[in-house]
Prior knowledge:
Layout: E1 2-8, H1 13-27, E2 30-37, E3 44-45, E4 50-52, H2 53-59, E5 66-70, E6 74-75, E7 84-86, E8 92-96, H3 105-123, H4 141-146, H5 153-159
Parallel strand pairs: 1-2, 1-5, 4-6, 5-8
Antiparallel strand pairs: 3-4, 7-8
Helix pairs in contact: 1-3
The protein binds zinc ion (2 copies).
Residues 129, 131, 133, 135, 151-152, 154-155 line the site of one zinc ion (ZN).
Amino acid sequence: MRIFIQMIGDLEEDLIFALEEGLSESFNARISILAPIPPDISCFNPLRNQFNSTCLLRKLKPVRVTLGIIDRDIYADKMNFVFGEAELNGCRAIVSIYRLRSINSRVTEERLIKEAVHEIGHVLGLKHCRNHCVMRFSNSVREVDMKPVEFCAECKKLLGF
Length: 161
Ligand SMILES: [Zn+2]
Ligand SMILES: [Zn+2]
């Protein structure tokens, strides 16, 4: 499997390298880091001071699996914010680092990897899972910190891992 990391705007190199390593371990994937693109201003909602995640997702190349990473706050329909969004059984996913940051850079990296693995799980067809599993839905960083970076046995089976 192949994963393309598409930075949207500026991000620290260290974070991207940690993500690359985490994803290659989780999916046994070949990772390519694409040249960064600016966030599309047509996806920005000035009333909310947030980018619409669905809009940003649709700007990514429809190549399986393309993962956009952005350092701006993002939202989806009917949500105050989202950590990420993905096309279920599709090609593309996006994760925002904005609300995942900790003063401890290792914690920030772990959260980013978990949310990226989660969104790619959706791209590969997985839905939310109630087990001790990376596919658990997280609504806060506390919930992100509590879930493991791994898929549970049931999700692994669905993925054919
Ligand atoms: Zn999810
Ligand atoms: Zn699971």
